[in-house]
Amino acid sequence: MELLAFISMFEGYTGEEIRAIFIMQGFSGLSMFSVFLLMALGLAIIFGQMKVINMAHGEFLTIGAYTTVFISDWAVESAPGFLPYYFPFAMLAAFGVAFLMGYLVEIGFIRFLYKRPLDTLLATWGLSMILQQIFRLTFGAREDSAVMPDWLMGSWAASDMVDIPINGMFLLGTSIFMTVLVWLLMARSRWGLRVRATVQNREMAAATGINTKRTDRMTFALGCGIAGIAGAAFTTIGSVSPSAGSLYIVDTFIVVVFGGAGSLIGTILAAFSIAQAQSILEFFLDGVLAKVFILLTVVGILMLRPQGLVVSKIRKP
Amino acid sequence: MLVLAALLLIIFPIFLDTFRLNLMGRYLSLAFVAIALVLCWGYGGILSLGQGVFWGLGGYCMAAFLKLEAARNIANEAGTDQINALTTVGLPDFMDWNQITELPWFWYPFKNFPLTLALMFLIPTVLAYIIGVAMFKRRVSGVYFAIITQALCWIMELLFVTRQGWTGGINGITDLRTLLGWDFMNGEHWTGQRLVYFITVIMIGVCIILGRLILTSKLGKLLVALRDTEDRVRFSGYDVASFKTFIFCIAAAMSALGGGLFVMNVGFMSPKLVTIEPSIYMVIFCAVGGRMSLIGAVYGTLVVSYGRTYFSEQFPELWLFALGGVFILVTVIFPKGLAGIVESATPWLGKVFSKTGEQQGSQPPAEAVGT
Fold first, then answer.
1. How do the domains of chain A map onto residue ranges?
2. Interface pTM (ipTM) of the complex?
3. Do A262 and A40 touch, CB atoms closer than 8 A?
4. Interface residues from chain B to A (CB-CB < 8 Å)
5. What pTM was computed for the model?
6. What percent of chain B has pLDDT over 90?
7. Shortest CA distance to A119 belongs to which of B47, B173, B56?
8. What are the C-alpha distances in Å from A206 to residues A31, A197, A213, B272?
């Protein structure tokens, strides 16, 4: 029955309509792709490089989102003139707060668990519970949203049938910008070199004078900071609630694992294919069925290619 | 083992009223999964974040049988007065609400009790076998296995919630009272709920003994070996994938038994119990009790579950802080859980508590757990 629904889903649409649907759904898929990619960037660093399974990653996103909401509320109340320009500053602040939290968490307990990756899963799950409860007690259980500057509102009419919202484009731009930045940082900077050296062979890296503990700490904090930026960007398309981050965490892990941990290209490919498939199937099937199809496909592909889509050719120590 | 048996068989039934005892029975039906996780995670190194799937499937099988019986009872009571029977004769009420007029074909086997019992074990075990063969033959392990089982958990939840006419949707399968005419939800002295409690305790004992047999056998030693250095076992000529699949299937069957008993303890089954979160709770039960101790797993389940009930009644706002703190504390400071604490505090008592295999692998070496 389901298979029939799948085959006959194109019936009753003209060719032009189908094209418009594909473009519109494709674009909303791009928004989803941007969210996945932004979240997965931080995870790809923390999980891909350090093998730490950060189940609290979604909560770092929420921290970034709440920081943005906080600054926007402040701008509305005491500095209305600042309102059109606050967003870039909010993003920086979101990065800063999440970075600092990540730094403290690493000192607090992550550093004891580097040799037991599966245990980081349990500990960070505990952390995510604590953080969610802190959000709930501080901001209340209801949903908050940031006031958007005018330039982020409205949409751009590409043709009669196709309407593309500006905030979606902004989100896409942010995620592309961040991806390039992360790539430059990991592949082209001294610091990225130190991270890669530490990951490949800790003792050897330490022997060449790299402070591996400091590198670990900064890497973890950086991953969290990127999640914070994702959170700030996230406020342009949705509202924030204490459990907002946990909605995406499983998806994001699947994206990172599917792409091949540690591979930036793989992460992009995985985020893109999952988001597009979800968005386009969602229009024709019901959303849940689309999700089930995609999860099953991903699991199936992972069985055939356990290392993920793109294997990073780094020698394991 | 003796202490636990005395506690569960004598002390609890004497000092707890039926309501509290039933609560314990509820917790104990989760302990089956914790014991299963000791076998496959603590010893086998296979962390399944979707163990709730097997537990839930077992529960749903049992619930399906009981629901059909409940539907028959309603039909019988109505007798000739079918109009007042509220539902189509012999059809579970939720199907009626979802405009399903005929029993779906896959519900037919659950009309028969022995068949239901067989399916309760078979369905989860076969699923575990398929997953196991597909994953372990391809050498998917560690984190990747965990994430994939989590995805499976999610798939199951989505399917069970949205296919309302077949599964009862978000409400699940409710109003289960009798098993083959025996009113197990009856709260009177020695009937119903109390008896279900004792059955649960005895089954826990069976599972612990079975677990011990496995762990003390050659298979148990092999499990520890492949957890610690899988490649070395493989190069010695063992078929690692088959061993892993085997222990994963045993764990699935054990979990399914827990699910079935849970339905008997509470009288319903719902998809909220098979989401990702309960599955992680189950891992926590096992971690808190001590991932290397079968008996510790039972204690871990009781302590965390009772703590959850007590704290969330008394200090609802603090509860999540306490639980989160326990997660972090246990993993960072007491990776061997309660069993480890008891063992180090009183060496001789520790030996009494858990004799199994502690000598070979006190603590899973780092790389083995992760790779």
1. 32-135+164-243
2. 0.80
3. no
4. 47, 49, 134-135, 138-140, 142-144, 146-148, 150-152, 154-155, 158-159, 161-162, 276, 280, 283-284, 287, 317, 320-321, 323-328, 330-332, 335, 364, 366-367, 369-370
5. 0.83
6. 13
7. B47
8. 41, 9, 9, 48
